[in-house]
Amino acid sequence: MATIVFMPFHWASDLNPTFALARKLRNRGHRVLYLCIPDTEPRIRSQGFDFTSIFSRAFPEGTMAKQSESEAQGKRYGLAEFRDRFQATCELLREGELDRATRHLQPDLLLTSSGTPWIGIAACQTGIPVIAFSSTLISVEDSAVPPFKTDLIPEHTFLSRLRTWFEWRKMFLYRRIYSRDWDISADLKKLARHFSYPVSKIDFRVETWPRLLLPELVFFPEQLDFPRPRKPEGAFFIEASVDIERRDGDFPWDRVNEDKSLVYCTLGSLLPFKFPARASWFFQMFIDAMAQRPALQGVVTIGNYLKPEEFNCPDNVFIASVAPQVEVLKRASLMISHAGVTGVKESAFMGVPMLLMPVYYDEFGNAARVVYHGLGARLRLKEASALELGRLIDRVLGDSSYSARAKIMSEKLSNLEQQSPGVAIIEDMLRDKDAQKDKN
Questions:
Q1: Three-class secondary structure of residue 385 per DSSP
Q2: Which of 339, 337, 335, 338 is nearest to 353 (CA)?
Q3: pTM summary value
Q4: Where are the alpha helices (DSSP H) in 307-420?
Q5: Can you list the alpha helix ranges (DSSP code H) found in 73-184?
Q6: What gap in Å lies between CA 79 and CA 52, rounded to an integer?
Q7: CB 84 within 8 A of CB 106
Q8: Looking only at Cα atoms, what is the longest distance across the chain?
Q9: Cα separation of 311 and 284, whole Å?
Q10: Which region holds residue 145: left if phi is over 0, alpha if psi is between -120 and 50, else beta?
Q11: Residues with Cβ within 8 Å of residue 76, at least 6 apart in sequence
């Protein structure tokens, strides 16, 4: 059996989907390890996986906690901080950090996050086979699929294609005018030349970081996406990789009335400390809407930087810092969120209808896909109020077609999870590697 090393980005949304795939690989006899920054060690080890630290000079232990605390106090993580860490990481890669970290592990395969293409470039130089993975949708220029920062739902018409084309032009123009300082294209080209990675194998016509044209596992099933006339080069849309064995800690279920329909509200792990004022307003709006619906039970997770006593809370709403999301969704009748990719996938997997209010990044595209598939409704920020939110809660809970479609989607995603196309792709690549070795 093979030794397989995952190298995720340090955000929970990038870590979580790897755990389900990693468990499947381990159950098939493979040795699975993680290589990541020091602050991810407790989370990874709590899931039962071995861990090796990397990039500790650029990300000393405690870095992410300090950043979260600083952002919660209004000191935003900006361009200067990003550039410092990015350049420090690239310098460590040039100094052979990846070779040193993997030497004693002797991996047969590296899986690197598409969120860190600089690591993927260096990984390809090691001689070890590399597969990229994406925890979000791939947003590659496509005349039929709009950028995921828009809320546009495409149709099979010329006008829809024209609107999609315009959204891509607008997005690229905005980047060129307003986001030039965040553009790492020149840095990646320089790094690629250093590691003899073909610049032609980097796709720069994408919405986020440039994308390496490697085999790429996309943890966002086609069943949840818009129809695509063509797949992005190298992309394999696999299972959602929802980890129902994930260990997220205990939860005081005795505080929740299980005789009432449960409505779960969350803004994920990032928004509550990145935008605390907006998050606080969102949570109070939800709480106020639930106060008018005593027949329902609300559970809201506010993160570690907002305090329960800051909210005016009725008896039928339980406030928690964090909650075991999959376990909560097993009991939920509705999820209300910002349309983060993890919450959307896990709700769909558990057959829970959604009410979404996107805030930034890919959330607009995620919400548009939920509406397209009839799995829920969306509410725009400028329209939001406790009254309007309550009206939509009543609408989604009162219309059985939402739960019916959510159940059908759940069955599709569950079947796909059991088929495990991600495992098959990885094992095919390992067999190809062995066959090539025997040939040589």
A1: coil
A2: 335
A3: 0.92
A4: 325-331, 341-350, 363-372, 386-398, 400-419
A5: 79-94, 97-103, 117-124, 158-178
A6: 28
A7: no
A8: 72
A9: 6
A10: beta
A11: 274
The residue that leads in pLDDT, 14 or 247, is 14
The tokens 């001689």 sit on which residue?
A: 127
What whole-number distance in Å separates Cα of residue 121 and Cα of residue 114?
11
131 vs 193: CA distance, rounded Å: 20
For residue 314, which phi and psi values (nearest 5 degrees)? -80, 170
The confidence score (pLDDT) of residue 433 equals 66
**CB contact set of 427 (below 8 Å; sequence gap of 6+):** 28
Q: Would you say the C-alpha torsion 115, 53, 197, 239 has a positive or negative sign?
A: negative
Calculate the alpha carbon distances from 250 to 85, 145, 166, 208, 333 in Å. Answer: 34, 41, 48, 36, 21
Characterize the bridge pairing of strands 296-301 and 354-356.
unpaired
- Sign of the alpha-carbon dihedral angle for 170, 176, 179, 183: positive
- pLDDT: is 193 or 381 the higher one? 193
Dihedral sign for Cα 353, 335, 14, 426, please: negative
Q: What is the pLDDT of residues 182-196, one digit of tens each?
A: 889 999 999 999 999
Neighbour-count burial of 387, counting CB atoms closer than 10 A to its CB (0-12 exposed, 13-18 middle, 19+ buried): exposed
How many residues are listed for the chain in this entry?
A: 440
In the chain, count of helices (H) and strands (E)? 16, 15
